[in-house]
Design goal:
Elements (H helix, E strand, L loop, with lengths): L2 H8 L17 E2 L1 E6 L5 E6 L2 E4 L2 E7 L3 H9 L1 E6 L5 H5 L4 E2 L6 H5 L3 E2 L3 H5 L3 E2 L8 E2 L4 E13 L10 E13 L21 E3 L2 E3 L21 H24 L1
Parallel strand pairs: 7-8
Antiparallel strand pairs: 1-13, 2-3, 2-6, 4-5, 5-12, 6-11, 9-10, 11-12, 13-14
């Protein structure tokens, strides 16, 4: 007998079934994306098709969404990460869109146009430092970002072609509430204090307690610091010099 077969035969493997779920949100963090409309009005949209590698993020959005159109036009956004306590505020943005008229696909699903998304959610816009769109003051984490690349998804399928876009964004500034910072470390988040809002099959969840020690956590975080951090610092220095120059000009 094959040794692998012998091992598997000695274990209890739960039964499984082949299914066809319409969505595959097995559990990802909710992101409130703030962007700027054509007239400068801040737009705010919840989404959960997002992941990060270093200071780069990949976001999946419908091409017809107002947020996607804003990002294509301005190449800027803020990725605001709500805590689980902000679930009611996020839910107030459900079935709303900044697009007028409402796109047909969203209209069929019951969406309606809302111009003031921050007001609708009861959240506070706070000026950003490196991009135009504001960040959400109540969100414990806010990442100012610029769009570096846009790529279509599903171009091989006639029905999907032109309808889904992925945005590669580069983070330029990370803001966090003091309450979630790790004690004794300038640039680290305490995962026991940070409770992100999670979307799982269109339902809201929070994180439970730590379930098992992590071997990966033994790697010093400094070893993950990539070149985009230095790029962000250079952008900050340039912004500071420009501010000083404008102040001198006014004087």
């Amino acid at each position: 007998m094959n040794p692998a077969h012998a091992v598997s035969a000695s274990r209890h493997v739960p039964p499984s079934a082949a299914i066809e779920p319409g969505i595959l949100y097995f559990g990802t963090p909710v992101v409130l994306l703030s962007t700027a409309d054509e007239d400068g009005t801040p737009n705010l949209a919840p989404m959960s098709s997002a992941f990060w590698l270093g200071w780069r993020g990949v976001l999946g959005l419908g091409a017809a969404a107002k947020t996607a159109q804003n990002m294509l036009r301005t190449r800027e956004c803020v990725l605001n990460l709500p805590s689980d306590a902000l679930a009611p505020a996020v839910d107030r943005l459900a079935l709303t869109t900044g697009s007028a008229p409402v796109p047909p696909r969203k209209y069929e699903r019951g969406y309606r146009h809302v111009a003031d998304k921050f007001g609708r959610a009861g959240l506070t816009p706070v000026p950003s430092e490196t991009v135009g769109p504001p960040r959400v003051g109540e969100c414990p984490v806010a990442m100012e970002a610029v769009v570096e690349a846009v790529r279509p998804i599903g171009e091989d399928d006639e029905e999907l072609r032109g309808k889904i876009l992925t945005f590669e964004v580069r983070v330029q500034r990370v803001h966090v509430h003091e309450a979630i910072r790790a004690e004794g470390a300038a640039d680290r988040i305490d995962p026991d204090r940070w409770r992100p809002l999670i979307m799982s099959f269109q339902h809201f969840y929070g994180l439970g307690p730590r379930v098992h020690p992590s071997t990966l956590a033994s790697i010093p975080e400094r070893l993950y610091r990539g070149p985009d951090i230095e790029r962000a610092r250079r952008a900050e220095r340039r912004a500071g010099h420009q501010t000083e120059h404008r102040a001198e000009y006014r004087d």
